[in-house]
Amino acid sequence: MKSQIVYLSNQLRDKGLGVSIRSTQTALDTYELLGTDDLALLKRALRSVYVKDKYDIAKFDEIFDECFIKKPSTDERQVNRNSNKRVGKRGGKSNKYVIKKDGKTNKKPNPMGAEQIKQLSGTPVLDEKEQLEREGEILNKDLTKLNKFDPRVLELCQQLGRRIANKRSRRNRLAKTNKVDIRRTMRKNIKYGGVPVELIKAKPRKHKNEHMFLNDISGSCEWISSWFFMLMYSCQTAFKNSRVFEFDNKVIETTDALKQEYLLTAFADVRTLRMRNAMVHGTSNMYSSFNQFRKKAKLNNKSYVIILSDCRDWAGPKIDGIPASVEVMKELVRDSKKVVILNPEDKYKWDVVDSCVSLYQEAGAQVFEVSTLNQLADFVVQM
Amino acid sequence: MSNEELTLKNIKKSLNDIGYVSNDEITTSTFLALSLNKPILIEGPPGVGKTELAKAIAKSLNREFFRIQCYEGITFEQIVGEWNYQKQLLHLESAKGKNQDETSIFNNDYFIKRPLLQAFIDEKDSLLLIDEIDKADEEVESFLLQALGEKQVTVNDLGTFDLNNNLIVVLTSNSQRMLLDETKDRCLFLYISYPSVEREMKIVKSKIPEADDGLIKKVVNLVQRIRTLNLTKKPSVRASVDWVNSVQNLGNKNVEEALIDSMGVAIKNESDKKRVLKDIFKQ
Question: At a CB cut-off of 8 Å and minimum separation 6, what does A181 contact?
Fold first, then answer.
């Protein structure tokens, strides 16, 4: 019995489920409590012990079936094609009952249909879960690899955006109400002999900041910018004054698309805008696009400029080997309150070949690595 | 319910008796939580009965019910307790000039106990619901590890409190953020998704016994269809109950009209409303 549970734990670990010794111990207790008379019950019980994420349910079910339910071997199948015996109490002790599904793990998931996309926004039914990556896996996946339309990412961007909006509004509310005005508190409590019995809260300060988002949509950053746009769509209520621009070798403003009723319509609008301006798989010219952006955005000392780009100025002019866009960056920094660059590339790729991260940093911009959706969302929360 | 009476069948029946329509998954996880005395973490979309399950377990087992409603910024003081500052201050003022030990203000009399500590020191068996744990900060979650794993709570200057009763801890989460692996590891996991048509009909019927079966079926089928749309906020089971209730109270002869008029109880967003009108009601 012990070996069967330990074997199950190991199999689950092999498939990527985090199974601790505590879980194995609990599983053993469960096994002792329930026995194997009712395998469906045991499966449900062990599922609640081992599984810690809804997207692991299908994986668990599959491995449980392999470990506890006997499947006929090829020979047996020839003798009795209709037999589908279950293993009794002794069954799982021997590995001979475990038949691995060859090639099953390497099988590519089928492309999702429209119905499935609809289902994804709700609770996935069990057989669908098999095809899905765990939410955590997608959120921590390299952004540069999210380079095709995936409804799961769309859904996650929406969720993240809503969370960001919630967090930011809570934080703002808290900031407005929870600060103690020390000076006024001391004055008020003089009557108590200096003992601070009554606390006086500070009055909230009004902020009139505006956020300018400038997304790189040249070949290497196109999809990342799209996901970022979707994130911004879902959390736009958290930013009072914000404008969104996109650039490759020219700049377009996509703020109006944010005001669309549905995310997909907004996304389609942005795509149309890009097509109309011949901005598909373009090469980036940061000199001309930053210049255009400066003229369009009309920056002031309350503007925060957030640029999502890999800082690779492919087509921009160079003066003495230094990209001319560095000078424009200096002007952007001078005109605005802060310029922040979110770079989806790994840090070890910065300043390699035509990447001009350090030059932009020297110009006064702050550069952060955002290689996953989680990092991107964290940044927007902190912004 | 004593240990001998603790069977799957009894749990299902007692939950049913107090109006909670269970399914096999829920019954099994509840049975395990009670048998192995382990905390249970319930995840699922809003309005599918996570909190209700905790209440139902407490009621069916006749246990004291304690609840911690988590939110961003909730602190140790709001969960475990805090020193009664004003009382301590008064004590010190009154003790001025007298030769009294100042450490006396750090005892039980000056400590206001909050739900976690109350649930721990209660003599009667209790159930502690930690609702929406995902909304609390990670620091709070880490603090709870001791309570969940070792059944102890430590308060600075006051000492460590051991569990005094057979406490069941139920945590709920809407997956707004990933919980710590340590928390998940200490808990049994139960995912409650939107119910099947049959179960949802039973739930609505148990909440509104006087409602017409035809109306319940119509509303539940409608809600299930709406859930397949890509909406900002999907209607919950609670919404189904409210919708049936609203249609009944409107008393219109035309059910279709009443459904549209009272759509606001289930659809909570203007853009969602437009989409439902277009895709479901074909307007």
Answer: A200, A201, A202, A203
